[in-house]
Please model this.
Amino acid sequence: MEIGLSHYLILSGLLFAIGIYGILTRRNAIALLMCVELMLNAVNINLVAINRFLQPDWRIMTGQIFAAFVIVLAAAEACVGFALVIAIYRNLNRINVDEINLLKW
Amino acid sequence: MSVGQVVFWLAAVGAVLGAIGMLSSPNPVHSALFLVFSLFCVAVVYLLMGAEFLAIIQVIVYAGAIMVLFLFVIMLLNLKRDEFGQDRLFRQYPVSYLATAVLGAVLTTAGLAVGLRFSEEPTLLVPADRLANLLFTKYLLPFELASLILLIAMIGVVVMVKRPRGG
Model:
């Protein structure tokens, strides 16, 4: 069975669903960041696969450019997220996100 | 089965198993290693689609930079097993199972609905200079904005983790 667009889309959907499950069940901030990275990767697979299979002219690769930008944003997001985690841990001595409720009325 | 199909199935199964292992491992370091394994399998998937440059970037950025960041923070905070492993959000579990099942079903159905579109052309490795040509001409503005975002992230990180003076 030849590998087509469906295979890539289903792989990306599975990874995204696993990431969503982790986001919903975990409350450790580091685990949440890991799940976000996983979901961004699932989106990237989608972008590259659709660019590969639905674009007749393979020289046009907007999808790959977008995926590269998503990787850049993922790196920036991870840095800021970890800085927040470290700052919160230093001040409150905890990193479980449901125990951090300073802004909650 | 051709070599490409075997590689695809290995990479896809590896990516999904790595993601599941990341969620089920009680040890934070093992969890980070599972995540990197999964991301490496995604890099192989990129390579199968001809996105040579993206596969290299994926390995460099994720295995090189983000992985080190994860391990660094895990070691720095000295997470205990019970702080990281399965959490006690009992009321949220049914909702999360339901949401995951619905989302997975919808995405899988959407993936099946597009049909098996095969590409007529063989998969060609997209050379990096072609990507660079696009990046520096047509997508110059987003490129500059991305560099600006990285600069802002860098400054923000330094400001956030700096200890207050005299404190």
